[in-house]
């Protein structure tokens, strides 16, 4: 198409003035006369007449051309094919799985068997090399409960089932360091005994001797030796006692060591 034809068409289009009354009249006739309708089904068939007229009039006025009205009467133009709309699913917001903190297991503490309580005998077990009973005599040696890390007292309990006409008692305290006598005593009358204390070599010796003509009655009696020692817990495994007695024409002797405080 040359420039001349294009110019003429453009001038004709600009000079054209649509006659609104004539267009509406033709539309009314087309709607009223079924013979003028195309046999091809169109969207206009399902619309009410007033709606069709209004739509065509609006289209005619908007385009300013007769061709739009004629196209509407002859059948609605086929709408352009549109690409099918795909619904894109929105991503599902996945909330993080709430993980509950693990419940701490109940821990079971095993304490083991209860310590066995060993009931101590009413009297300490004598050393293996001791003889605590002989004839009418019975004896027991122990460290006094009031002994400390500086001072101690060794006790001898002596029992007799018969009166004693002769008795000699000795307490031997090993020199473990700083052992010095601080005194001695007995439950029997002091006037009945001759008491001597000797520090001889590695032993501190306490000795009680019954005076001639005196008698030790039946029953329980105690003899004690007191002493200082080097600071600390003093071991008594080398300490010992011995008692020799005579009664009714027979003699008896006992000996042994000193047990820890009860």
TrEMBL record:
> Has UniProt tagged this entry with the keyword Transmembrane?
yes
Residues spanning the membrane? 50-74
Provide this UniProt record's keywords sorted from A to Z: Membrane, Transmembrane, Transmembrane helix
Task: Name the residue ranges with Low complexity bias.
Answer: 83-123
Region feature Disordered, mapped onto this chain: 80-136
Official protein name in the record: Uncharacterized protein
């Amino acid at each position: 198409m040359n420039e001349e034809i294009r110019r003429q068409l453009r001038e004709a289009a600009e000079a054209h003035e649509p006659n609104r009354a004539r267009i509406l009249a033709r539309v009314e006739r087309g709607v009223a006369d079924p013979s003028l309708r195309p046999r091809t089904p169109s969207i206009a068939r399902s619309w009410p007449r007033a709606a069709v007229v209004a739509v065509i009039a609006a289209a005619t006025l908007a385009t300013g051309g007769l061709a739009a009205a004629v196209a509407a009467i002859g059948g609605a133009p086929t709408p352009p094919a549109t690409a099918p709309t795909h619904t894109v699913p929105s991503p599902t917001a996945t909330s993080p799985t709430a993980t509950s903190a693990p419940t701490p297991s109940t821990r079971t503490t095993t304490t083991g068997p209860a310590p066995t309580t060993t009931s101590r005998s009413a009297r300490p077990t004598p050393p293996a090399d001791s003889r605590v009973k002989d004839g009418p005599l019975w004896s027991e040696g122990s460290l006094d409960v009031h002994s400390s890390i500086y001072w101690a007292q060794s006790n001898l309990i002596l029992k007799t089932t018969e009166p004693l006409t002769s008795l000699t008692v000795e307490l031997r305290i090993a020199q473990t360091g700083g052992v010095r006598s601080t005194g001695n005593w007995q439950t029997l009358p002091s006037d009945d005994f001759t008491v001597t204390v000797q520090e001889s070599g590695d032993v501190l010796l306490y000795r009680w001797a019954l005076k001639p003509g005196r008698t030790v009655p039946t029953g329980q009696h105690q003899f004690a030796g007191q002493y200082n020692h080097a600071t600390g817990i003093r071991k008594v495994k080398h300490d010992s006692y011995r008692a020799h007695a005579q009664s009714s024409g027979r003699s008896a002797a006992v000996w042994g060591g000193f047990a820890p405080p009860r």
